[in-house]
Write a structure and sequence with these properties.
Length: 375
């Protein structure tokens, strides 16, 4: 008997939308934070690690909190915490206070991320069809809306504190609309899950594959502009690579449920991994920066539905309760985003950025080869 319906599916999409808006709204504030605190680029990098550390510390326990107290409470409380903390990112006057604020912001975002994915897994299983890509697609839409909205308000001359408060109110409004239909209780089988367990079985494999994909996504975010500028583009044009990636990823995810429903998760993982790997190779081998742009677009297209399929697989595996599995997979995967920029930089310094991107192509090929074992 189904326990969820259209209202729960809509509320889940709204939670993903709110999370995407909250997370991406920080990006336009980074230059202002650096100027206000007076830190150098290297110090700023260390401060930004505080956000990731906060997320990594919160993620492992969120699954069991959602199981014991219901997704609704955890999503709303973490969302409220995010809204309370966010304006202080625009006000923190010193590096220590900014680091503490980023840590708290990361913890609330990490908790929100895992709890909404736990809800997504439950809703999708009850629905009996593919929904995860659409949920993650709304996160991408939220990312565009959050970063674009903040940038627009700042461009129009609004102060950073005022703009952050406005964005906070929008995010809070979206969560309040979603709140009444979020899941109040987890399935009975989830409620007695232990507080913390070591990942095992298929969960480890799924988490590692997510890490490869997140590492690839983070590399495009952090290094695509450098790659294109090294290839001859101007600084103003360097962002075109990530733009091409983000557009195809968002389109792919918004249409992903139909694709997964028609072709199956296994085929999506296989073809998506191969397409993303081919995209990285195009970027590496392209004779000019402009010819590398289709490669970034292909990476976004190929990678768009891999993580949603892997999260769906987390809900279907039998080695761990679904809530704990989502927590573990999120933590392992997020470690790829956290370590990715430094790892890519180290490889690039040692042998060149082209070889680092070629290694990412190999990682996506690994994802493709494991399609049969995971989906």
């Amino acid at each position: 008997m189904k326990t969820t319906g259209l209202k729960q599916r809509v509320s889940t999409r709204l939670a993903f939308l709110a999370a995407g808006m909250a997370m991406s709204s920080w990006a336009p504030l980074v230059p202002y934070a650096q100027s206000r605190t007076g830190v150098e680029a290297a110090q700023l990098g260390l401060l930004l690690l505080c956000l990731g550390i906060g997320s990594l510390m919160a993620m492992p326990v969120t699954g069991v909190l959602a199981a014991r107290y219901g997704c609704r409470r955890v999503i709303l409380w973490s969302g409220l915490g995010c809204c309370v903390v966010f304006p202080f990112l625009a006000m923190a006057p010193s590096a220590p206070l900014l680091g503490l604020t980023l840590f708290l912001f990361g913890a609330t975002i990490g908790t929100l991320d895992v709890s909404m994915n736990v809800q997504a897994v439950i809703v999708e299983k009850d629905y009996g069809g593919a929904l995860m890509s659409g949920f993650h697609g709304m996160f991408s839409v939220g990312g565009i809306a959050g970063a674009g909205g903040m940038s627009l308000m700042l461009w129009l001359g609004m102060g950073i504190v005022s703009a952050s408060v406005v964005m906070t109110m929008i995010v809070a409004g979206v969560l309040l609309v979603a709140g009444p239909q979020l899941l109040r209780e987890a399935p009975a089988a989830e409620r007695d899950a232990p507080f913390l367990v070591v990942p095992r079985g298929a969960v480890v494999l799924i988490g590692v594959l997510c890490m490869f994909v997140f590492l690839a996504e983070g590399a495009v975010l952090d290094w695509s502009a450098v790659m294109l500028i090294n290839g001859g583009m101007s600084g103003a044009q360097g962002g075109l690579g990530y733009a091409a990636f983000a557009v195809t990823m968002t389109i792919g995810r918004l249409n992903g449920d139909k694709i997964v429903q028609r072709f199956g998760g296994r085929r999506v993982l296989l073809l998506g991994g191969l397409a993303a790997a081919a995209g990285f190779l195009i970027v590496v081998l392209a004779p000019s920066a402009w010819l590398a742009l289709p490669g970034f677009a292909l990476i976004g297209c190929g990678a768009s539905n891999i993580v949603p399929v892997l999260f769906s697989a987390a809900g279907s595996q039998r080695d761990m309760p679904a809530g704990l599995a989502v927590s573990a997979i999120s933590t392992i995967g997020y470690a790829g985003i956290l370590a990715g920029p430094g790892l890519i930089g180290f490889v690039a310094h040692a042998v060149g950025l082209e070889w680092a991107f070629a290694a990412l192509a190999c990682g996506m090929l690994v994802v493709a080869t494991q399609a049969r074992r995971t989906a």
